[in-house]
Amino acid sequence: MPSGAGVVFALWVTAAHAQDAGFANAVQPVLRQNCSLCHNNKNASGNLSVEGFTGRESIGANRDAWERIISKVRSGEMPPKGLPRPSEAQTQAMLDFVRKEIDRVERAKSRDPGRIVARRLNRAEYANTVRDLLGVRFRAGQEFPPDDSVLGFDNIGDVLTVSPLLMEKYVYAAERIASLAVGADPLPKPAFVEQKADRVRRIDSGATDVVEYVDYSGEYVFRAWIRGHLGPDGKPVTLRMLVDGKPVQTVEVPSAENETSSVAKDAQRVHREVRVYLAAGEHTLRAELVGDDFRKPVPRPLRRPAGGFAPGPNTIYPEKFDLLGPFAAKGEQPLRDRILKCDPGTGDGCIAKIVKPLARRAYRRPVTEAEVAQLVGVARKAREAGFAPDQCVQYAIQAMLVSPHFLFRVERDPRGQYGNVSELELATRLSFFLWSSAPDEELLALAETNQLRKPGVLDRQVVRMLADKKSAALAENFAGQWLETRGIAGVKPDALKFPMWNAALGEDMVTETKLFFDHILRENRPVSEFLNADYTFLNSRLARHYGIEDVDGPDFRRVTVDASQRGGILSHASVLTVTSYPVRTSPVLRGKYILDVVLGSPPPPPPADVPGLKEDEATAPASLRAALEKHRTDPICASCHSRMDPLGFGLENYDPVGRWRTEENKLPIQVGGTLPNGAEFTTPVQLKELLMKDLPDFTRNLTEKMLTYALGRGLESYDRLVVRDIVSKMEQSGYRFQTLVHEIVHSLPFQARRGQLRNPPEVAAK
Question: What is the per-residue pLDDT for 765?
């Protein structure tokens, strides 16, 4: 017989439920039969008791707890294995009721757009803005210290602070950039540009390229060396030399044995050169032999790391490059001509004409006459100190680049509690979201004339900006951090086990993922293709790494792949490499990656006193699986590893550098497992099919990540409704990727901001 107190409690609950049959029918039975055994006032497993959840009002009053419940029940983690589970129909009915109730409560509240703090430009934003403003390709990633990263991104305003060291570097950088843009300072003595061996990429026997960085704008001698000979007929070959993809010279080259120079004969090398203008920054130099006869794999001896190779008959290829300079340019100087609209020697009027449009773009708003006068005053002081007119312009630009108006993104608070950001602030938000750079002339002009919020204008700008090549910044900065492929620069697979690994191959892996992301975005493909696409982007080197044939040449192109082995980001070598150790794969890292990056439900950090896996327990797949089985028998570990490890084992067909395998150390690879909800899989294809069933979770996670990146702040409880509304719109559009971008741009937190309040509504409500 129940106690008297228990009878009173039961009667009270019955009366409450009579007022809300929906809660009583859809929610209460699951709580009573499947949750209360562990989650009660006495046990409170996971610091959660459901005894107080006796009516519909408990959902709104305990929103965070219910969000946890929904997440655990939907994933199958709760109820734990071995305990009674509700039927699928019961589970879905409870989830639907709770979600609708949370939405009803949140929609009844005053909507909070949140608050974005003032923050400086991060390194990528600084470099891109300088590039678009002055045409200078500044290596901010090498010149400035790394930006702090929180919530997975390095553009979060709360941590973008300025140290004295960084301020010193800003001053030096401004001087350097201004000098490169105007080019008034004397050039250094011409010298050979240092060439790093790992930057030379020989893709096939007909093409070689190298990425070089030149510190000064000017003319350079670009020399390409050709090694080898053609054979007894001695027919010449046609050599094409390119800079940044554009041909600069096409010439015939005889074989070395026909060259008159004894030095060339002995070295079996000939060279051709051309003089080209290069702006300061990074450039790709390429030499290729024209014709299909040379489009073949690099002979194996050429891929050996060191010496001993003598070209055999019919072997000729571009070997290396020289770059000598800088020399004073004789003709047009694109950067200088772009900036100097008039002769600075004519006086302050010309200086003002030069700096005013630059300051408008740099400050991302119209500039006042007083601000222009300040910059002109800097140039005047330089002239009084004896500097040449062009150098005076450099000083004005330098002052502009260290101004807080350039370095910081600052928004004004609304007059009331909430309010829309100004159109100029909206344009800046949009531009840094899509381009990681300042607004261009068209976007800035629309904002200045208050046209941006007129019907259809903002959407047309989003379409235009996504079509612009500058939107590659989303693949570089958003996708590179969301998918964690930026981390490949710090990966060093074991050289003995993986001799094919080098920096160039790592770059190719990252390029594949960038192009894949960029394609889905630009072509407005469904986001489901991140999981199950039947194509990817490869060049010959990465295709050989994957064992895919008939992909020739150094250029990336779309390639249809075997869906049983490749397809989607989880088969990309970039992802598989950053989730491995130098000598072996890691099902734990890969499983955690799927939970965090794909599904948005990361496991909590492991307890501090739990030892890591010993390497001697993980030298072979069988022992690795056995060692990890111990995690799932330990109750402390099982709550996370029971879901994480099986997902990771679903990717065991891929080795630590992303190659397909069916065995390791002559032992068969064991793939697959059972998830907490009972779902089983035995192949990577079946794993992808299970993840596709979680497409709403993947879409929600992608939405949260991209909204965080777009706003530059972490999401709060009041942003959950925004996320759910965006996911709903995406579902209606067939999960098209550009729908996500448009909906973020139109969302309340992107369009508005909260003023500085001592007790914001959400805080006060708690």
Answer: 35
Tokens found for residue 615: 């390497």
- Reduced to 3 states (helix: H, G, I; strand: E, B; else coil), residue 595 is helix
Report yes or no: 155 and 709 within 8 Å, Cβ to Cβ: yes
Reduce the DSSP state of residue 72 to 3 states and report it: helix
Q: Please spell the DSSP secondary structure of 695-726, one letter per residue.
A: HHHHHHHHHHHHHHHHHTS---GGGHHHHHHH
Contact 316, 226 (CB under 8 A): yes
Through-space distance between the first and last CA atoms of the chain, rounded to whole angstroms = 39
Q: How far apart are CA 278 and CA 294, in angstroms?
A: 29
Q: In 3D, which of 711, 709, 744 has the Cα closest to residue 727?
A: 744
CA angle 330, 333, 339 (to 5 degrees): 150
Q: 247: helix, coil or strand?
A: strand
Listing DSSP states for 89-116 in one string gives HHHHHHHHHHHHHHHHHHHHSPP-----
Tell me, what's the pLDDT at 330? 79
- Under DSSP, the state recorded for 733 is T
Cis peptide leading into residue 79 (ω within 30°): yes
In a domain, 442, yes or no: no
Residue closest to 321 by CA, chosen among 284, 290, 359: 284
Domain end call among 297, 327, 357: 327
> For residue 676, is the peptide bond before it cis, meaning its omega torsion is within 30 degrees of 0?
no
Q: Number of structural domains, the chain?
A: 4
Which of these, 102, 150, 99, lies nearest to 696 by C-alpha position?
99
617-644 pLDDT, tens per residue?
555 555 566 666 666 566 556 556 667 7
Helix, strand, coil fractions of the chain, as percent rounded to 5: 50, 15, 35
CA–CA gap between residue 491 and residue 274 (Å, rounded): 38
Q: What is the dihedral of CA 738, 603, 488, 555, to 10 degrees?
A: -30
Query: 628 and 715: one domain?
Result: no
Q: Are residues 669 and 723 in the same domain?
A: no
Are 134 and 334 a contacting pair, CB within 8 Å? no
């550098």: which residue's tokens?
657
CA atoms within 13 A on the CB side of 743: 24
| Residue indicated by tokens 């004409």 | 353
Q: If you search the block for the tokens 């390119």, which residue do you land on?
A: 242
Distance CA 195, CA 197 (A): 6
* Residues paired with 408 in a beta bridge: 120
Question: Are 335 and 183 a contacting pair, CB within 8 Å?
Answer: yes
- CA–CA dist 177, 126 (Å, integer): 12
Q: Tokens 């450099």 label which residue?
A: 394
The reported pTM is 0.87
Could you tell me the residue range of the domain that residue 716 belongs to? 696-765
Reduced to 3 states, what is the DSSP secondary structure of residue 330? coil
pLDDT per residue as tens digits for the range 21-50: 788 888 888 888 888 888 988 887 888 888
Q: Which residues of 600-634 are buried (b: 16+ CB within 10 A; e: fewer)?
A: bbeeeeeeeeeeebeeeebeebeebbeebeebbee
Distance CA 155, CA 123 (A): 9
- 371 secondary structure, DSSP code: H
Q: Can you read off the two tokens belonging to residue 696?
A: 């709403």
Given a contact cutoff of 8 angstroms between Cβ atoms, the answer to whether 737 and 521 are in contact is: yes
Q: Give CA separation, 327 vs 225, 321, 330, 500, 689, in Å.
A: 21, 18, 9, 39, 59
Question: For residue 101, what are its two tokens?
Answer: 């109730």
Considering 92, 108, 124, which residue would you say is the last residue of a domain? 108
Task: Collect the ranges in the chain with pLDDT lower than 70.
Answer: 1-19, 196-205, 229-234, 255-268, 292-315, 332, 607-642, 757-766
207 shares its domain with 99: no
Q: How far is CA 439 from CA 251, 445, 450, in A?
A: 42, 9, 15
